[in-house]
Write a structure and sequence with these properties.
single chain, about 475 residues, mainly alpha, about 75% helix
């Protein structure tokens, strides 16, 4: 380990850690200490020579990558993260400034692991927020997709501190940098994509607690929406509006009307929902998450009093939601089938020896075959790459990825049950409106509405069953 700055040795170490996973846990602290020391040695050599040669640069990057691999390997052991934090914090603090431009991506990955797998986010880790915000505002726009991950972790996993701390004011600093980025005409659409995702993180994680930010965020969203040309960014910007409606439909509709953009926004939204490519596929809102956000936003409008929503608008929204629910159900089923096919393909490639080796390995490590840490690790990678999910060419799927692994607060909200409950409330509170809405449907939409209602009841039963099974497994686990 004294020669750990050697790039070949670092690569070998990274490979060993990756292969043995949690078995490396007893050595994680020591390895991180040695790798951190080796990294600082590389940096000191660079400062002495006023430049970092290629081998030194590779060794420095390799040290950070190896640290990330160790953190990932012990991701299911959150108690280890506070132990390595004091070792890694000085590296993160220094290298999130202009001093770390050459290793910025690798450092951000470490920050992502530290803010996601640790049980809590410490105040010391929060000290990194201003550094990332300042870098993004100054020179790091090319790293926005990497910065997105830890910022999302801070908002989603330490929401209370994000909301209550006033010195520094994290809410204000986030809005300031997002406003600067989204209103900058010199920044390309692609580079802005993480911005609406962070607005979504705020609206979903802080529901009912950031009313004062809804209008400012809607203003910069609509401003950029009018100028953007890229389809995927348009999707994300419309989804900010959908998230705002789900956050508070009355407040959001009032703001849209106050800004005199309600008709403009909804006309564009409905046009995008209907737009198809040459192949016949829908051109917009192609991920399951996109559809779900649109469903929750539009369905929330149906809960508003009749005087706020004209009957014709109500009917249009109702039909749009039914179409989205059908498309969402079909996509969920297709995803499940594809996952089954992939599992079958993997099983077909396995030999008996492979299966025996895998079983023995799992038994030795005490690991359940359904590895939960893989899901967590994939979530970070998926969130880091989701900005690439756009589709620039009309019929090309090359850039599209249906990254459904990342987590959000709406994961536990079933869109069919949500829609069904709002319609049930309407049928009780405003029966005349409910009858006008449902009886005005043509034969096709009546059939769709009945199918949706039936599926909502099925989902209710399934959800209750899942809750019961989870509760039972929890009791068994405690015995």
């Amino acid at each position: 380990m004294n020669e750990v700055e050697n790039e070949d040795l670092v690569f070998t170490l990274e490979t060993i850690v990756d292969k043995f996973g949690e078995e490396m846990a007893p050595y994680a602290l020591g390895l991180c200490q040695n790798l951190a020391a080796a990294f600082w040695k590389c940096m000191q050599s660079a400062e002495a020579e006023e430049d970092l040669d290629e081998s030194g640069a590779l060794a420095a990057v390799g040290c950070l990558r190896a640290i990330s691999t160790i953190l990932e390997s012990v991701s299911r052991l959150p108690h280890l993260f506070p132990q390595v934090e004091p070792i890694l914090l000085p590296i993160m603090q220094r290298m999130l400034t202009t001093d770390g431009q050459e290793v910025f991506e690798e450092v951000l990955e470490i920050v992502s692991y530290m803010t996601y797998f640790s049980e809590t986010i410490s105040l010391e880790m929060w000290s990194l927020w201003p550094l990332m915000i300042n870098a993004l505002d100054d020179w790091a726009i090319d790293f926005f997709e990497n910065i997105l991950v830890p910022l999302d972790n801070y908002i989603s996993r330490s929401t209370e501190h994000f909301l209550t701390c006033k010195e520094p004011d994290y809410q204000q600093s986030l809005f300031k940098v997002l406003s600067s980025v989204m209103t900058d005409k010199n920044i390309e659409d692609h580079d802005i994509e993480p911005a609406p995702k962070l607005i979504e993180a705020v609206l979903q994680n802080c529901k009912g607690r950031v009313d004062q930010w809804v209008e400012p965020y809607l203003r910069i969203t609509i401003d950029r929406l009018r100028r953007t040309e890229k389809k995927y960014l348009k999707d994300l910007l419309i989804e900010v509006i959908a998230n705002a409606l789900y956050y508070n439909p009355h407040l959001t509709l009032n703001i849209l009307q106050k800004l005199a953009v309600a008709t403009e926004v909804f006309n564009l939204w409905f046009h995008m929902l209907q737009e198809v490519k040459k192949s016949g596929q829908k051109a917009n809102f192609r991920r399951e998450h996109d559809k779900k956000v649109c469903i929750l936003g539009l369905t929330s409008l149906l809960s508003l009093p009749s005087e706020l929503l004209p009957e014709e608008s109500l009917r249009q929204i109702f039909r749009a939601v039914l179409d989205l629910l059908v498309a969402y159900k079909e996509q969920v089923a297709e995803t499940a089938k594809n996952n089954e096919d992939e599992d079958d393909d993997m099983d077909a490639w396995k030999t008996d020896d492979d299966e025996e080796e895998e079983d023995d390995s799992d038994k030795e490590m005490g690991v359940d075959t359904e590895d939960g840490d893989e899901v967590d690790s994939q979530r970070l990678h998926k969130l880091a790459t989701q900005v690439h999910a756009g589709d620039e060419d009309d019929d090309s799927d090359d850039d599209f990825s249906d990254d459904e692994e990342f987590q959000s607060p709406i994961d536990n909200v079933d869109p069919f049950v949500f829609f069904s409950e709002i319609m049930k409330v309407m049928s009780v509170s405003d029966l005349r409106r409910f009858q006008i809405l449902t009886q005005s449907l043509d034969f096709h939409y009546q059939a769709v509405a009945n199918a949706v209602a039936h599926h909502a009841e099925e989902r209710r039963v399934e959800i209750e069953k899942e809750k019961a099974e989870k509760a039972a497994s929890g009791v068994v686990g405690k015995q």
